[in-house]
Design brief:
The protein is of the alpha/beta class and about 240 residues long. Helix content is about 35%, strand content about 30%. The structure holds adenosine-5'-triphosphate and magnesium ion.
């Protein structure tokens, strides 16, 4: 297996307060890796530190075999983006005044027509919405658009932060299998998700964070059968 993302001893925090205390993480091509844990455990910070949106204070991050320099965040973001990394953040970061179609084709990175077509194939509902302003789309439609938009840049590594936040269970039931299909085409996916059973159903492996450290890592199916591990991580008791 080819490691697309290798994180070793990652430390990061805010204003001098460390919130990640040495995270080790590995994601291979074609894998969905779920990143789980209670609110405040450090999931978003981990994704942001990988992208360079949060400054790393220690440890190594390698994307596609290349070490991501620690340096200035904005420059690092640009370099990692070019190396094939895409982040779908909680706020979706769409251009709400632009149409769905414009959101898919405009952006700092070159959009590949075939990649846009493939992304629309994954979320066919978006085809009927191409002329609609993104800001007028439903939460689920916007989330599909945010993922489709990331895919239009043909990432090798897709980081998805809480794509189902605030969405109805039926929409979650459509989004997560799409994430699985994305990985099945060879893209590596890190999935931060609060719907734990749904996430484990599409993931190959999982990491459970607790207070900025990895409390558990292993096969998704094995973790799904370990409610004690999940309860401990989410509720602080076994
Ligand atoms: N911009 C910030 N400034 C200061 N502290 C922050 C900032 N963002 C996050 N934190 C703190 O860092 C810790 C980890 O937060 P993080 O957002 O990574 O957690 P999370 O696992 O993504 O949680 P959630 O499930 O609620 O999204 C928390 O204690 C949080 O309060
Ligand atoms: Mg978060």
């Amino acid at each position: 297996m080819t490691a697309v993302l290798e994180v070793a001893g990652l430390r990061a925090g805010y204003s001098g307060v460390e919130v990640l205390h040495g995270i080790d993480l590995r994601v291979d091509a074609g894998e969905v890796v779920a990143l789980l844990g209670a609110n405040g455990a450090g999931k978003t910070t981990t994704l942001h530190a990988v992208c360079g949106l949060v400054t790393r204070t220690g440890g190594d991050v390698r994307v596609l075999g290349a070490t991501v320099p620690r340096g200035r965040a904005s420059a690092t973001v640009w370099r990692t983006a070019r190396r094939g990394l895409a982040l779908v953040s909680e706020d979706r970061a769409l251009f709400s005044q632009l149409t769905v179609g414009e959101n898919l084709t405009l952006g700092p990175r070159r959009r590949d027509r075939r990649a846009v077509e493939e992304a629309l194939g994954l979320f066919p509902v978006l085809r009927d919405l191409l002329g609609r302003r993104a800001g007028l789309c439903s939460g689920g439609e916007q989330q599909m658009l945010a993922i489709a938009r990331a895919l239009a840049g043909r990432p090798r590594l897709l980081l998805v932060d809480e794509c189902s936040l605030g969405l109805a269970p039926i929409v979650v039931g459509q989004l997560l299998p799409a994430i699985r299909r994305i990985a099945d085409t060879g893209t590596a996916v890190v999935l931060v998700e609060q719907h734990v059973p749904a996430a484990l159903a599409v993931a190959d492996r999982a990491y459970v964070l607790s207070r900025g450290a990895v409390a558990y890592d292993g096969d998704a199916g094995t973790l799904a059968a370990r409610p004690d591990v999940l309860e401990e991580a989410y509720l602080g008791r076994a």
